[in-house]
From TrEMBL:
It comes from the Bacteria. Gene3D superfamilies: Haem-degrading domain. InterPro entries: GlcG_carb_metab_protein, PduO/GlcC-like, PduO/GlcC-like_sf. Pfam families: HbpS-like (PF03928). Transmembrane segments: none annotated. This is Heme-binding protein. It comes from Streptomyces huasconensis.
Length: 142
């Protein structure tokens, strides 16, 4: 019988999601970029979504797929680009998941106490910009 006690980790809340969306939006506005932001909880459920009316329609799907990819693989999407190239770690990764994965910068997993609690995806700017906006959001939550 184990005497170790499990430590509960607080889940990603709606309030946390609002912080993430607001921080990503502010970072994008400071760069004069219009983006869509998606926040998922650890189960892949949509907690928050924001798309400015000026954003390209596809940016909403892009931000969602980036968040989903970061969540499923528990890694920043920017770090996964080379992994899907021929000979890469995920080159043969099946695409028969709930939604196709998207290996382009802008998706980040969100951790609390070292555990995965959700993910954020930002779409609408250049990949490097989206990554920076998502990073600013995660840093604001910390």
């Amino acid at each position: 019988m184990s005497t170790t006690t499990a430590t509960a980790v607080a889940p990603l809340t709606i309030e946390d999601a609002e912080v993430l969306v607001t921080a990503a939006r502010r970072a994008a506005e400071a760069a004069d970029v219009t983006v869509s932001v998606t926040v998922l909880d650890a189960g892949g459920h949509l907690l928050a979504f924001r798309r400015d009316d000026r954003a390209v329609l596809i940016s909403g799907e892009t931000s969602t797929r980036k968040a989903y990819t970061a969540l499923q693989l528990n890694a920043p999407t920017a770090d996964l680009v080379d992994a899907v190239q021929p000979g890469g770690l995920f080159h043969t990764l099946p695409t028969a998941l709930d939604r196709p994965l998207l290996f382009i910068a802008g998706g980040l997993p969100v951790h609390r106490d070292g555990r995965l609690i959700g993910a954020i995806g930002v779409g609408g700017g250049a990949p490097e910009q989206d990554h920076g906006f998502a990073t600013a959001a995660v840093e604001a939550l910390a």
